[in-house]
Design brief:
Strand 7, helix 8 and strand 8 form a beta-alpha-beta unit. It is built from ten helices and eight strands. Helix content is 42%, strand content 16%. The chain is elongated, with a radius of gyration of 20 Å. It has an eight-stranded mixed β-sheet, sandwiched between helices. Helix 3 packs across helix 4. The chain has 297 residues and is of the alpha/beta class.
Length: 297
């Protein structure tokens, strides 16, 4: 009788752990939407409202396009496509992204900002931390190609940075990429850092969630591999930006990608800034780094 009770207790505990892991895994891939509650006019910017399909054609994405009145005449301009982080919006409020957009537009570059699927004002109900979001960036690239013929640079923050690398690896028209606080490979990153997002102890929940997630949403995190993507982007330039004090995505992620091709890639490491916090601490230096990179495309 005692062994039966012990067995029943073990099964019950196991079911509870699996239930918690399934619930948290579902929440992580279906984060609550944040609203777009700041507007370009507050920064002296004039926007064009745009809607375009993800390249996968399953969702419509909402965004803004800013045409720079200072773009060079008689030569091909450059459009910067911004991609925000996990569970955020185009505003990337930690910067804020609209302040950076203002600096880029004033220096003669066009900017496209948009919300990923299941974010802000865009359609969709699933967040995949790069796998499907890559299709969203490719959709933004296609919109630029059809409406504003120009060179293209991708600029992404956190998840948006990794996703930008994935997209650039598949789209040869991308002239360069800038990433801020990007992860290099989703599967090992989650294995080491999932408690940051799940708020649960590493054991037993991290292996349980990672075992359940692919079956839950039909997507394997191993396919989100920015480290492999940078090899396909080379010899096109990439600027990696990361704080050494980032407590969400270790700076070694960016350093590892930079080390693949340091002859072409650039790495700017800051200190004392949190995740995607370098701009907020050093806005002038940040603007200078970004604009210098853009001037060389």
């Amino acid at each position: 009788m005692i062994w039966y009770l012990i067995g029943a207790l073990i099964v019950t505990i196991g079911l509870i752990l699996v239930g918690i892991s399934t619930y948290v895994g579902w929440q992580l891939t279906h984060p609550k939407r944040k609203i777009v509650d700041e507007f370009p006019e507050q920064y002296g910017l004039q926007k064009q409202d745009i809607v375009f399909p993800s390249q996968s054609q399953d969702v419509a994405l909402d965004g803004w396009f800013f045409k720079s009145p200072f773009a060079p005449q008689g030569e091909l301009a450059t459009t910067v496509i911004m991609s925000h982080g996990y569970a955020g919006t185009r505003l990337e409020k930690g910067l804020p992204a609209l302040a950076l957009t203002k600096a880029i537009v004033d220096d003669g570059y066009h900017v496209l900002m948009f919300d990923f699927r299941n974010s802000g004002n865009s359609e969709g109900s699933l967040t995949t931390v790069g796998y499907l979001e890559k299709q969203d960036v490719l959709g933004a690239i296609q919109w630029v190609q059809e409406h504003v013929p120009s060179k293209i640079c991708l600029l992404g923050f956190s998840m948006g940075g990794s996703t930008s690398l994935l997209a650039a690896a598949e789209e040869s028209s991308v002239a360069g990429v800038i990433t801020d606080s990007a992860f290099s490979q989703l599967s090992p990153y989650l294995r080491d850092n999932l408690p940051v997002w799940s708020k649960l102890p590493r054991f037993p929940f991290t292996p349980l969630i990672l075992g359940i997630l692919p079956r839950l949403i039909g997507i394997n995190p191993r396919h989100v591999d920015a480290l492999a993507a940078v090899d396909r982007i080379y010899p096109r330039p990439i600027l990696f930006i990361h704080s050494k004090d980032d407590d969400a995505i270790p700076w070694s992620n960016s350093e590892g990608m930079w080390r693949r091709h340091p002859d072409v890639f650039e790495l700017w490491l800051t200190q004392k800034a949190g995740h995607v916090g370098s701009y907020n601490m050093q806005p002038e230096a940040y603007n200078q780094r970004v604009l210098s990179f853009l001037s060389k495309l």
